[in-house]
Amino acid sequence: MKKLYLLFFLYCCSFIVVFAQNKTADSLKNVLNQTKNDIEKVQLLNEIADYYKSSNPVLMNEYATKALALAKKINYQTEEGTALLNLGIAKIITGNYPEALDFFSQAKLVYENELAVNSKDNLKLKNGLARVYGSMGIVFSEQSNYAKALQHHLKAVSIYEETKEEDKLARVYNNIGIVYRAQNEDFKALDYFSKAQKIQEKIGDRTVGITITNIGNLHLKQNNFKEAEDYYTKAKYYFEKFPNPRGLGELHNNFGLLHKKNSTSEKALESWNLALQSFDLIDDKFGKSDTYLFMGEYFYEQNNGSEALKYAQKAAELSKQLNVLEGTALAEKLLSSIYEKLNQPSEAFKHFKLYKTAQDSLINHENIRKSVQAEMNYEFEKKEAIKKKEEEKKTLLLAEKSKRQTLQTIFIALFVLLLLGIAFLIYNRIQLKKNLTLQKELAEYEQKALHLQMNPHFVFNCLGSISSFIVQNGTDSAIKYLSKFSKLMRLTLEYSKESLIPIDKEIESLQNYLELEQLRFNNVFEFKITKSLEIEDDMALPPLLLQPFVENAIIHGLIPKKENGTISVDFSIEKDNLVCTILDDGIGFDKSKEIKENLVAIHKSMALDITKKRLEMMEASTAQKAKVEIKEIRNDLGEIQGTKVVLNLPIQYIK
After folding, report:
1. What are the backbone angles phi and psi of residue 556, rounded to the nearest 5°?
2. Angle between helices 345-370 and 146-163 in degrees, nearest 10
3. Residue 566: predicted pLDDT
């Protein structure tokens, strides 16, 4: 199993604030109780949270939560990022990777924003950002997403090399080695482990035991049992000297594997039980899932089906809960083998299918990894940059000796020209920005002018029908009609102030208008308005853009029809366009033109002309195509079944 033989060098077990190293949790709490300054309080809360990272993730989460609340209250961005980072680390320890990534993403955003404006805490902010990248790399590693893990670890390396944080750099080297080892690239893994060990021995790092454990794991894989046991024994000494429950638990897991290979079964089980005890101290589900799998495999090989089944089920349950594909695949494969040995073919087949599903997902992640060679590119670019700087330095020195005076004159001339060029570019940019602003405002005013032309056209049509409606219908119907009409007018006046309105507002307006027309024409037609789920809440379009087409469909398509008709309006997304479709089953465009040639021609010409201008202005302001298509719908016999209007509009959003 690639990953489970290794111990990730968690930041939660490595980065220890100097103040916290020298004082106990109790002394920190005493200082906290006596402090009245909020800045000092939030720093102490984060230090206490950091203190608990290797022993009590629950308390770590509690104090980090308090630190986050106080940091936000006093707007202390640096400590807010630290609190979010501590919360993410606490989630890693308890195996809640989705929440861990969420906290790390928030911390990353805080650090990046603060780096852009704060130069006072520049070093602390950079190291915090590097710590975020490294922590995210750990999460991706434990989820078998090795490509992303390398990407984030190498970002952390780049920052730590800049800030010269050797202890932290060693820990990232260790984690990179683990990622390579998980992919069976043992040579690269040993290279990074050696880098980490060299730095840790140089500075006396208290967590060197983790690096030693990983080197021992490589020897165990190569069946160098004596060397592996020597490294494990040395690592145990450091873990006992500097308590680390997770590190000690993983070490006991590896001791169990070593004893199993040496055929000392009792010692293997004893080591795994010690591992479970260590993991229980910090509720480390990931570590326990490894141990359960090892014990399940052991009992399976010993032909103890009931015990093997019990531990394999526990391993599968935890792996699925943690979304660890590799652990899930191995646990399901083991369950399939156990049920096969227990002569339960249906259960064996069921778990074999689950194993194949997890294995296929794992293969997909592996394929992604092959396309990412981030570490190779990083080393190559680094060497090339150093080489280029050295060559430029030599060239400048030689040129200065031979033509110093000439170069000075040329430099001054170029500098003056550069200043003039920059001034010219700045001036042009300012003028261009002004022109673009004016053009944009002009386009918006023209849009408003065009859609305001539609308002009187629409209002006069409605007012023209009110008097006849009142005469033909009773007082109650007239009041109902006028109520709907006034609501529609309010919406129309409100929308006329805006260049764009949300699609839901346009739907509301069309709904009111269609209900009004239904009342006016005694429900001679039905209507339906639909909207695709792909349409976002802040997508928008110009107001009253669809109303003329809906009105034409009713007046000139459905009303002349002898029987009842239907009209539908649909909003959908196709590629990068908003598509508005108006469909009716009326008499059709050509026949309507024949019936009321003069009147309809004037009416439709106005509506289409205004809409065409509005679409042209939309194209000018968005630099995207906008068009309208009107066509008759015919059946297989060529008979007219209605009219279809399709508007293809660029996708726009409410600012």
Report:
1. -105, -5
2. 40
3. 95
